Q: What sequence folds into this?
């Protein structure tokens, strides 16, 4: 107990100047940079007293860190009682491939039970929460509807509401918060494991803001009791370099920034770099051999992509590893030009978007986009300008809704 209070005092003394800068109006009037950003998790003095004496359930993965150390390990060392860890897609340690079902286990390092929330058990059960006093959510997100952390967030919030548990969110910056773009999903037939929310493809919110959106827009039968530790010295316009990889296939900052645009290629005939150590920075397919000189070969990589599109075949296409990301930030838009270009270059256009699924008649591409309109527009040769114009009514409506839940300035 003495060690805990000594640690709290030391942390508070170390962090006090940063907190004063954030809370002082005169200091806030100064321009702050990304170097000044302090994640919710790193502001331990604000929440450690609240965790004291409680049995904590932590929703976490490898991106959950305090300083450069795992949040689980850090909190345990500070005397916090973590009784369970709940892991999202890719598992608690972040070493499972995309889409892989992750089972329950016991963490070899700490001996804490790890409950998988990706697979059959997407939502914590009443039994799993029985010995938990407080749930804590600390996961890095990248701001896309098809990035499944926000699905996990909703299921955790729903479970907390149903079982009268409070959820503490340790907020983190959204590296793609500057862009709110793409068609808004409005039809239930496009809901799937890679999209359950009526948002554009990129929503421009942090996890804390998205949690408020879920509560406020009645995604839950009853509201979840929330406590959010905000990111200090942050706004949505700031560039933010992630300190850890948020998932196995987002292994560079370039991939994180290109992901919203390149993930559109999943469900098409194009490989987006899965099966290489350059995922979401390259695009290609064997059929494009006569159109592009850049080439690579996807292979099975355990823990990243075991069955990539065009496995063991040479793909030809576009190398975006040195693409100037500032162009995306300046446009504040997803890049549609690459999708249109590769569709037009692909010799077998009938099979570019893949086959529709037999069970519901919806193609994997449409599930990711949240509508079948984009696919139909590209096939019909509709211009990029006209496609974007068709998105505007939905985007403007969503932006007005989104504004109600923001914790940080745009």
A:
């Amino acid at each position: 107990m003495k060690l805990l209070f000594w640690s709290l005092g030391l942390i508070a003394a170390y962090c006090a100047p940063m907190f004063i800068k954030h809370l002082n109006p005169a200091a806030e009037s100064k321009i702050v940079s990304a170097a000044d950003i302090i994640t919710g998790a790193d502001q331990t003095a604000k929440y450690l007293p609240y965790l004291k004496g409680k049995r904590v359930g932590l929703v976490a993965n490898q991106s959950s860190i305090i300083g450069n150390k795992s949040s689980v390990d850090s909190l345990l060392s500070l005397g916090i009682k973590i009784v369970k860890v709940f892991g999202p897609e890719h598992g608690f340690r972040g070493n499972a491939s995309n889409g892989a079902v992750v089972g329950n286990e016991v963490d070899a390092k700490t001996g804490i039970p790890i409950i998988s929330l990706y697979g059959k058990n997407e939502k914590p059960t009443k039994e799993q929460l029985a010995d938990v006093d407080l749930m804590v959510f600390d996961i890095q997100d990248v701001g896309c509807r098809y990035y499944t952390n926000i699905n996990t967030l909703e299921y955790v919030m729903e479970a907390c509401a149903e079982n009268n548990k409070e959820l503490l969110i340790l907020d983190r910056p959204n590296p793609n918060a500057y862009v709110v773009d793409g068609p808004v999903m409005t039809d239930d037939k496009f809901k799937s494991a890679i999209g359950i929310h009526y948002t554009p493809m990129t929503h421009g919110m942090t996890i804390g803001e998205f949690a408020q959106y879920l509560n406020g827009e009645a995604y839950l039968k009853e509201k979840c009791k929330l406590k959010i530790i905000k990111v200090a010295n942050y706004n949505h316009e700031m560039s933010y370099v992630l300190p850890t990889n948020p998932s196995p296939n987002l292994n560079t900052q370039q991939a994180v920034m290109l992901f919203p645009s390149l993930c559109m290629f999943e469900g098409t005939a194009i490989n987006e770099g899965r099966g290489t150590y350059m995922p979401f920075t390259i695009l290609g397919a064997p059929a494009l051999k006569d159109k592009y000189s850049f080439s690579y070969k996807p292979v099975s990589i355990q823990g990243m992509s075991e069955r990539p599109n065009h496995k063991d075949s040479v793909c030809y296409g576009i190398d975006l590893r040195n693409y100037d990301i500032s162009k995306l930030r300046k446009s504040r838009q997803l890049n549609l030009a690459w999708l249109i270009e590769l569709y037009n270059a692909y010799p077998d256009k009938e099979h570019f978007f893949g086959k529709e699924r037999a069970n519901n008649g919806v193609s994997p591409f449409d599930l990711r986009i949240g509508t079948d309109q984009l696919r139909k527009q590209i096939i019909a040769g509709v211009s990029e300008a006209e496609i974007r114009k068709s998105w505007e009514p939905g985007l403007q409506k969503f932006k007005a809704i989104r504004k109600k839940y923001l914790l940080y300035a745009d």
Observations:
- Confidence is low (pLDDT under 50) at residues 1-30, 94-101.
- The chain has two domains: 2-243, 253-370.
- The longest strand covers residues 81-87.
